[in-house]
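It is worth pausing here to work through a concrete case rather than discussing structure prediction in the abstract. The textbook approach is simple: state the sequence, then state the predicted structure, then interpret. We follow exactly that order.
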Amino acid sequence: MNHPLSSSSPGSGRRIPIPVPVAVVALGLALTSCTTTPAGPANGRDSATTAVREGGSLVFGAEQEPDCADWIGTCGASIWGTYIFQTQTIPRVFDVRRKGADWVPVASELMASDPVVSKGARPTVTYRLNPKAVWSDGKPITSADLKYTALQIRDGKNIFDKTGYTEIASVATPDPGTAVVTLKRPYGSWKGLFSGSYGVLPSHLLDGRDRTAAMKDGYQFSGGPWKLEKWVRGTSLTLVPNDRYWGKKPHLSKVTFQFTSDTAAAFQAFRTGQLDALYPSPQMDVIDQIKSGLPNASVRTEARTGSLEALWMNNARFPFDSAPVRRAVSYAIDREALVERLYGPLGVKEPAQSFNSPLVSRYAGTDFSQYSLYLTKVDEIMKADGWAKGGDGIWAKDGRKARFTITSMAGNKRRELTQQILQTQLEKAGFAMSIKNTSAANLFAKVAPAGDFDLGLWTLVDTFPEPSLGASFRSEAIPSAANGNAGINFMRVRIPALDPLLGDVAAAMDDTARRTESLKAERIIADEVPSLPLSAIPNVLLWNKRVGGPLSINPVEGPWWNLADWGRAE
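Step two, the predicted structure:
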């Protein structure tokens, strides 16, 4: 995972590239939000209607083990850390909850009331805390905790993402229950502060200490319904109820997350009852396992998530430095057939038509729907731009052929299949594409930030329901010495008309204005086609008949966002 937008400029929602296949991935906007079906010959039960008993324990499979638990540090950028530990123990100002068809920020139990934001050139945000809110040691959660967290992120070193926090001018604490944040300028995504995958940290335990050292290997404090019992590196992480939590108490007496990175081993453990639930990445072998049948189990797929898989074109490298070539390539790809081949068994039929993920669909247009397989259009565009096909059927211009290389993560079967399908489609249209994959670490630490690729294939994840196009397409987000090489505009996109629009999206405090400007930006992006959104990938949750309670998948907080409501089925 790399840093998203430059911390020197106002960003939108937090957006991160995903180096490995993860379970939070997006679907086409036309799909329903979720489905629940039996996953084997015996009818599985929908736990959303299953009563639970008090006590008992469950064991869940976790595909990845967090590197560390210092969530605001560079070592804490694990989405699985968010799912299994951070969400359960760190309080937030805003939770992400479904409202109608959309996922929206909702003030959490930490707050006595909704934060109040003022207007003006230097807006203020006033937070009033719930007087019942306490840490697991019984100490109140106070305004000092918000101030500590804000300054640790804004002024700290080795911080994963400072987006938004660099817009903070000051934090006042007029009393223990009130914090007043003054912003340097209007910042539309202010609800992301103290929320998402950061939250609020305890100043009375961490101030004056080495925060990373205190948290990285697990911490005993909690401001949520659960607390850490033990973390056995390489094996498991176990949570038990926080008996001082002021909200709803967990039904279960213990939950263990078993680290199971091997898909075949995880499904075998699930089949034999060693694991009670799985949240697998929708890889090809996962789909095969589900299709083969899982007795006494149910499966749920969730459509409205925060991730987006796309083809990322390097606008500074031949041949994608040409807008006509980018358009022609977009007409040469049958995205519908690609999505059907990859995700049809899970009910996914439509490609993504926006670079805003379904999590932020309110700000998304459908402008990329103009790009579907149209080989006559490819010929028309390429010929008009001075290209001609040679005897080998490949387009050429000024002595250079339309050859390029696609780069993704080595060993990912789904992406390797995607590349093979694309290779065949593009060859029919007159483009020669070779494949050169590398490790995730090399791709996101070196290759992509340096712009050392022609065409990339990877996923971006929005981690809060705020528009985030600026993180990917604003010129200030091109990795450079000026922004500490922290931007994720790896494609070197520079569209003069786009930058001011994305700046307006980031700054607008009025949501209607943000949506209007975002839709304008979408139209420009689709016309210039600096990259091409491909698909969306469903979340998949499987559970056995021992699991009860209301089960659903939160696109930000994961499937265990309401773990306190889970229990052993009666």
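Step three, interpretation. Residues 511-528 form the longest helix (18 residues). Residues 1-12, 19-47 have pLDDT under 50 and may be disordered.
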